[in-house]
Design brief:
FAD/NAD(P)-binding domain; D-Amino Acid Oxidase, Chain A, domain 2; globular
Length: about 600
Amino acid sequence: MRNRNEVLQQLRTTSEGSSAPILIVGGGINGIGLYRDLALQNVPAILIDKSDFSSGTSAAPSRLIHGGLRYLETGEFELVRESVIERNHLIRNAPHLVKPIPVWVPAFSWFGGMLSAGLRFLKLKKTPGAKGILVVKLGLVFFDRFGRKNRTMPTHRLMSRSESKRRMPGLSDKVCAVAEYYDARLVHPERLVLELVKDAERDCPQSIALPYLSLDGTDGNEVRLKDEISGEMFTLKPQLVINCAGAWADEVDRRLHIEKRLIGGTRGSHLIMRRPDLARQLGDGMLYFETRDFRACLVYALDTDTILLGTTDIRVNDPDGARCSDEEIDYLFDVLEQVLPGAKARKEEIVFAYAGIRPLPWSGDAATGSISRDHALHEFEPETKRTFPVLTLVGGKWTTYRACAEQICDTVLKRIGMGRTGSTLSQPIGGGRDLATDATGRDREIGEIAMASGLETAVAAILYRRYGSQSRDVAEMMAEGKCKPVGGDGLYYEEEIRWILKNERVTRLADIVLRRTLLPFENAITPETIDGIATIAADELGWSDQRLADEIAHTTTLLTQNYRVVSLSPQQQPFTTHGPHTNSARHQEKGRRI
C-alpha cells in the first residue's frame, strides 16, 4: 500500500489534469464500500476524509455484524433479509475479522408485548413496548427463515429459566425464559475498512484514498480540498460528488451549496470495562436485553478480563461532540443491573469509553427507537453555484454497507454511462483471501508461518488472528528484526508496528493507537506503549523532535479527555476488581478472544 505522501503526489497530478474525477467525501465504511465497488468496475475515484479512515461513526459501533432482529417489530422485513444475507457473506469473506457469536435474549414475561408489537408492525404505534418470549420467538422464526440461504450458523432455540440460570447464575430471577440465536462479532472494524481500501487500490491503481484531506468549498465546476496536516490546497473539477460523510453529511452539503437538512443523528456510547467475573459468566456469548424504557442493550466479553457494554440512543446536533457522558455511564450501569442484578458496576472499572453519532434521517420529534436504520440516497442536480451533481447518503449501517455501496455504485454507473462488470458479494476481503476455513487448516497455516519466519508458534498465531493471510507479510518483516514487544511487556511488536507504518497509510500517532491496533479494547494502553509506538513512527515517517512531542501530547489528551483512559495518568494506581486479577498479572492471565 502506498504511503500518504505518494498518494498526495498522485492527487497533485490528477488535479493538474483535464479529466473529471468522481469524488467521494467520507472515509467511513459506506464511503469506502463505494470506493471498493467502483474499483472492482475499474472506475477510479478519489476518496477523502477530514480525519483518518474509519475514525467517526464507523469506529464506534457495538462491533457486531447483526441481522437486525429488532427491525422486524417495525415491519422492516427487507432490511432484516438484507442484513442476514450480508452477515452470512461477511463471515465467509472476512473470517479473520467477522466471527459467529451466540446471543441470549432474556424475556421477563411469556405473553407481554403481543398487542404492542402488532400495532408497531401495522404502523399504528411508533413507540416501542415490552416484548415477551413469545414475541421474541415469533421474530426469530422469521429471522431464521431469512437466513436459510447461505446459512452459516445454527437456528434459534428457547432455553428454560433453569437452564439459563445454570449457565449464567447472575441472570435476574425475573427472567422467565431465554431465546438463543446466532449473529456475528466484528472484531476490528477499522481494519476491515483499511483492507477494503487496499483491495480497491490493488484492483484499480488509479484510485486515490486520502485521510486528513477535507472539502473546503465549492465554486462553479470546482471543489477546493485542504490537507489538514500541511495546509496545502488542491483544486478538482469533479464529474460527480458522492457525500458519504455520515453524521457530517449536512455540513458537507452546505459546502456544496445544498441547504436541505437530512441528518437527525443520535449518539450511541459504549464502555469497555475490566470485569473478569462477568467475562467468565458471559463466556463466548452475548446478552442482548430489553431495558425498562424498552430499548435494546447488550453486553459481551472481549476476553477473560474485559467486557463491552452498550449502548445509548440520545439525540444530538453536534457530530463533533461524540463523547460518552456521565449520564450515559449511569444509564448503562443501571440497565446492566436490571439483567444482571448484583453486577454493581463502578466507574473505576472503565478502561475505555467511546461514542459515535448514528447518521439517521431527520425525523422531527419521533422516538429514537422508531427511526429507520435503513439507508436512502438523495440526488441533487447541478445548479448555478455548483455545476456538477451531488449524491448524498443518509443512514446506513455496518452490516449492510456492501449492499448500500452496490446500490450507490449502480446509480453512479448509470450516470456515467457504464455497466456493472462484477459484484463484491462473494469477494474475499483483505486478509480473508486464501484463508483456511477449519481449525485443522488454520493450525497448518500458522505452523507454516512460524516455520518460514522462525517466529514462535504462539507469536505466529497472534499475527494470524490479527491479519489473516496478510500475517505472512507481517511475520516476514518481523523475522528480519528482533521480536521485541513495544513498551517492554506490550501486546504488539516493534517490527509489527513498522509494518503497519509502511503499509497502512498512517498519518498520526492516534491512527495506530486507536485504529490500526486494538490496544484500547485489550486494556493495553500505557505511557510506555505510547512512547514506544511514537518513537518507531517518528523514525519511519521522518518526524522532527517537536512533531514527536506534539503527537504524544495530542494522543494522550485525546485518550484521557475523549475516551476516559485513566491508565495514562501518572497518579493512577493499580486496582483490583471483583476477582483475583491485578493489573500486574493481566498479561499473564488474560485470554485472547479478541
